[in-house]
Amino acid sequence: MRRTAAALATVLTAGLAAGVQTAAAAEPPTCGNPADHQIAEVQGSGGTTPLAGQTVRVEGVVTADFQRADQLKGFFVQDPTPDADPRTSDGLFVYSTTDVAIGDRVLVTGKAVEYNGLTELSPVSAVDVCGTGKVAPTSVRLPLKGGAGMEQYEGTLLRFGQRLTATETYQLGRYGQVTVSAGGRLFQPTDGHGATQAGNDARRLLVDDGSNVQNPATIPYTDPRVLRIGDATTGLTGVLTYQFGAYALQPTRPARFDDRNPARKRPPNVGGDVRVASFNTLNWFTTLDKRGADTAEEQERQLAKLTAALRGLDADVVGLMEVENNGDTAVGAIVGRLNRAAGAGTYAWVRHPYPGTDEIHVALIYRPSKVTPVGDARSSQDPVFDRPPLVQTFRPRAGGTAFTMIVNHFKSKGCGGAAGPDQDQGDGQGCYNARRVSQAGAVAALADGVPNPLVVGDLNAYTAEDPVKALTGAGLVGQTQRFVRPSQRYSYVFDGQSGELDHALAGRALSRRVTGAAIWHINSDEPVFLDYNTEYNPPAFYRPDAFRSSDHDPVLLGLDLR
User: Fold this and answer.
1) Helix, strand, coil % over all residues of the chain, rounded to 5
2) Is the pTM of this model over 0.90?
3) What is the residue-level pLDDT of the chain in tens, covering all 562 positions?
4) Is 468 helix (H, G, I), strand (E, B) or coil?
5) Do residues 349 and 310 lie in contact, with contact meaning Cβ atoms separated by under 8 Å?
6) Which of 102, 257, 412, 457 stands 20 to 30 A from 65 (CA)?
7) Helix/strand/coil (H/E/C) assignment for every residue in 315-381
8) Cis peptide before 544, with omega less than 30 degrees from 0?
């Protein structure tokens, strides 16, 4: 609440009472005590304050107010007469709930400290409002010129006049955060888009909601529609803070994101007389409280979304990843729900002859009305595989050329247990790259012995990484590189960077029969709070549709096998 007019009249000159400036109040005596330091002196020219632990008195104009208990519990001040050193910031965070308003000219006394990398005054012993002032936001563009860092702007009011694109929404529901970037979304440096990690880091900016509260009651950027990666905003304005190892903008004006990446309710047309897909289900488990759903309610919500996604793909053969390795139970549950929706017998599944011992395995479902399995399913007992592949040849029901699905889920990039050559080599490919390369070699050998191979799945390797190169070097042809334009060639988002982990590579003869390929962006661009979980997701956002049915986007191919 604002201070009363009576309180203002006895304490300060230029406060606000119910939104009306008080003109007759006398200036408090403490306003005669001048500042003993400029804000720039407190900030210093380096990453930390040179006055740490010292009590200082500074003067500035309030540029942002985040004093509520559910906010940052403080406000920002900025010197309207900055010094001549471009390395020093002229803004500062004041950790105090003393009542102030934007535009107040204040004298603040407090201890200069570094809190999680942010220079601030805390504790504060005096906040004296001594008039009003104005500070215009500094115009800034990303990336900063000459490779400069953001430290020079810490605590100051900024305006980004350029278009900035949402490139990460993972923490939107949990912390009200979104990461934006200049020049469009960020791509993984190892995905073949020409990006570098340094270049990506210079183009990105974290945008917070002025609060450290988890699971905010109102999630920003959800009205009138939920923000998707790829949406963009112009004129972003706020004060710059530093938190959790990154600079973050706390908006002082609501940011409006334009719908630059509208959701597609159906995948692009890929043609062909047989449609083939690959889809990572994000731990579809019929056993509760393991890696998938924790409760029966969550399981039903997850199955409804997976069913909607598979029906939307409308594929005749689908390779699935991250299905619980419990015999026919988990894959049978998916097929059962599909058949309940599409008609009895619409889909069937291939029994995996050697699913391995991992908690998850790959699976394969198909339409008996469109394709017929030829021979028995095969796999590999090569110990290089954590999750053995599933190999099955199909022939079109109406006659035509046979093709062989080889469904895969390569070792992940996580570093748990990594040793020797499996450790992170610092080349951007993560841990276990050597293992994935060996797995790719073993899959290439399998493909060499079957008719018209089609290698699909989550390879846990981006397009320009060694495992994919091993497959293309063996004569397999990546289909999304042929048919999907570069800006749409991604299936997963990690750390704000998009990339293609899910692949479809065909033998050369089969490649000539591919009529189209698409990545259906129903998952990677969507905020996490739209998924099936109930722990933190506001119930109003759940829909039994395909969107955020997983964290990977499915890949779809059309084949002309006539």
Assistant:
1) 20, 30, 50
2) yes
3) 333 333 333 332 333 233 333 333 457 788 989 999 999 999 999 999 999 999 999 999 999 999 999 999 999 999 999 888 999 999 999 999 999 999 999 999 999 999 999 999 999 999 999 999 999 999 999 999 998 999 999 999 999 999 999 999 999 999 999 999 999 999 999 999 999 999 999 999 999 999 989 999 999 999 999 999 999 999 999 999 999 899 999 999 999 999 999 999 999 999 999 999 999 999 999 999 999 999 999 999 999 999 999 999 999 999 999 999 999 999 999 999 999 999 999 999 999 999 999 999 999 999 999 999 999 999 999 999 999 999 999 999 999 999 999 999 999 999 999 999 999 999 999 999 999 999 999 999 999 999 999 999 999 999 999 999 999 999 999 999 999 999 999 999 999 999 999 999 999 999 999 999 999 999 999 999 999 999 999 999 999 999 999 999 999 999 999 9
4) helix
5) no
6) 257
7) CCEEEEEEEECCCCHHHHHHHHHHHHHHCCCCCEECCCCCCCCCCEEEEEEECCCCEEEEEEEECCC
8) no
Only one residue has tokens 């080599």, namely: 425
Q: CB-hemisphere CA count at 13 Å for 298?
A: 21
Q: Are 217 and 209 in contact (CB under 8 A)?
A: no
Cα(88)–Cα(39) distance, integer angstroms: 9
For 351, the token pair is 């029994």
Q: What are the tokens at 409? A: 């889920």
CA distances in angstroms from 148 to 86, 116, 180, 201, 393, listed in the order given: 11, 21, 18, 12, 56
Please spell the DSSP secondary structure of 184-224, one letter per residue. Answer: S-EE-GGGTSS--HHHHHHHEEEE--S---SS-SS-SS-SS
H/E stretch holding 471: helix 466-473
The structure tokens listed for 444 are 């290439």
